[in-house]
Amino acid sequence: MKFVSKLALAAALTLGASVVGSAPALAQKADKKAEPQLKVSDAFRKAAVAAETALKAKDLATADTQLTAAETVAANDDEKYYSGFLRLQLELEKKNEAGQMKALGALASNPKTPPDRAKVYGAIYNYMVGSQYLAQKKPADAIAPLLKARELGSTQEDLPVLLANAYAATGKPNESIAEVNRAIEASKAAGRKPPVDWYKFAIPRVNATGDRAAMADWLKRYIAEYPTVQNWRWAIQVYRQGTPAAGKSEKMNLYRLMRATNALADRGDYADYSFAAQQSGLPWEAVAVIDEGRKAGKIPAADADVQRTYTASQTAVKSEGSLEGLAKQATSAKDGRSAQQTADAFLASGNYARALELYDLSLQKGSVDADEVNLNRGVALRALGRKDEARTAFQAVKGANANLALLWQASIDFPPLA
What we know:
By secondary structure, the chain is mainly alpha-helical. The chain contains 21 helices and no strands.
């Protein structure tokens, strides 16, 4: 994807005042106390004044003819500076980018160009050169002039994303990501909402680096800007792609996050989720998900594979019986492992209040993975509408589950559309 915007040479480049005709130094004799006089020949002055007069009258053809004559006789830096400045104004009027670039390059390197103007000209010239290299599919060549444009003070809004393109195309993902981040922050600082495509450009590249914390942070920021069901689904899918070795617990919590954000979209989502729940020993959740999928019209009534999962899960639920017996046993257990397992079952069955009680008990008794417990505590608290407590629980999650907890936390702050 390319982020190249239309080249925007501001009208400010036309620095306004008459260049030749209004310069007394061209018509008067030198004064010993005055600044040194500019050296121009009569032939140059005649052609340059005629070009400027035609340019003011918007007679571009005559201006071009006269300016070409002035350029032909321009022999020193003073004459080349003035002819270059007129050429820039003319090419701006003609909307001729090639001519603009030539004039800008000449002005930027001319020793008679005032230093402050030389920086402006050089910044825009290098920006345009870099942009052209990208358009010509020469990203490696584009990087140096674009960086030079930045060094000279370029304020072009799309300079960071041009660099992001160039870095991405030359195998430098970290540099590319940093440039998109720079563009996003600059856009926000200017009071503008960063385009959604900037996030979708950066996030897969962040994912490819394997930095799970950075990935979760980028997805959270993306959802903060664009909290829609479709974007939640995309974010979770991209995150899942970056965790191919995820355990059963993480896979289940990704499915739960999709369910909590209304991001389950089709038969495949519901079927895979319910099968994963059934295989994880959570048949209550498998039954509930299939019921929801059928009610939403996502699972066909005659779907034999889903029906097998449904039947097996219903059988397992019946054989388990009441979970309260297990809860009572967990109370007298020597550690918190049975309390955690029973809490998982209550969570799967939708009894979030009892799940929370058992998770708290498991932490009190110990010998459990506190990060995994706190993640599930946050899920239960969120479902109960206790947002601040859920946020605290998710923030307490460290280690391998910390990144997933960031996404769950985002779901509290930025709920999806229905």
